[in-house]
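user: At home tonight, take the chain set out below, taking as long as you need, and be ready to discuss the fold:
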Amino acid sequence: MSELPKGWVETTLGNVAKWSSGGTPSRKNTAYYNGDVPWIKTGDLGVRYLEEASENISNEGLKNSSAKLFPKNSVAIAMYGATIGKTSILNIEAATNQACGVAIPNASLSSIFLYYLLKNEKEGFIARGKGGAQPNISQTIIKEYPIWLPPLNEQIRITNKLDSILAKVDKAQARLNKIPAILKRFRQSVLAAATSGELTKEWREVEGLSKDTWQPVSIDDLSNRAFDGPFGSKLKTADYTDNGIKVARLENIGHLVFNSAKETFISEVKYQDLIKNTIEHNDVLFSSFVDEEIRTCLFDERFGTYINKADCFCIRPNKEMVSPEYLMYSLACKHTYEKIKKQVHGATRPRVNLRYLKSFEISLPSSEEQSAVVEKINQLFHKADKVEKQYLDAKARLDRLTQSILAKAFRGELVPQDPNDEPAEQLLDRILKERLSQQQKADKLKKTTKKRAIKAKVADKG
């Protein structure tokens, strides 16, 4: 650990701010919600200045719960689960739930400085999280958390420098964040061109063929078999085991990718009852639930032995008629999505049934052209994948850059120290003495009030 910079003092978060947390009004009372009081939850945190809450409570809900109203410029930090360490400055007067720790900084530091400091310490808070799968940090952990505090004037220099540097990082991040959407549109445009015949137009000209060779054919006619997974009593939650034969569930079926990381098992004995649901190499899996895009993918035997679960349709292509990859790409294209979305429009959980999927028609070219289509798609997708990797690498570098800049700031290396600055120790000492004096006055007033109440009670009895 580097040496404490001159003029700085080692202290705790509890000494530089008044810390508290909020609460949740009873959900059973509808009058407690949809009022005028912004109610912050951990999912709202992360932006520098929080301007609005995702949910509001009423004044009645505020009074009848442990929720509290915090002043503008308070600093909130997430204390629970995967959001631990997410931080925002409240740019509004707002209440929070109990998962948010909230600081009202004293005169030893500013809200923006505390915001940056908490961001810098995010990994430290995560490391102190307790509770297993969903670790939490408590008010006690936060208050006892050690920090290095610079002089007030140096804090101003640090925050000004951070504002300037990180604004440039944020602009770069904003430009990078556009890339996933651009890549998604590119891939969809490739699929649209491929399944309409546009992508292989030149290929047909060279081969002396026309688009007339493309014919609409149903999935049922293209497949040797299309089947849903077992449902109801045939496969219950109680049938799942810690190991054995794997089950392909909705969470495994992505858009053009099989997500093998999430595993669910059944026993060998149960598998024998459901063996007809075994998924084979190059089967096309299709999620019956249709939301923002079609989720369909190829199954690879390298994943191991799997059966499919209900709502995970399995199409076994007739390879003499259709390439499994071509079928997958045809089902994944935007045209297919738009047609199916119309079919399920208005459903609470939009999905299609197997009968509809089997009747669905795709445009089918010759086997030779299917191979040409798949080859061109894969070539273009390979280029998109390379761009995506470059994007992910650049994003990771930017994330590391932000953290390295913050770390440098809070080691005292970002701006020079000024010997004319009042040392932070003197400032903090004054503040703590003032806090102690105020607390003693409050305690004395409380005792006096209590004595008067007792005397009044005795007088009434007399």
Observations:
- Residues 31 and 58 are 7 Å apart (CA to CA).
- The two ends are 69 Å apart (CA to CA).
- The mean pLDDT is 92.
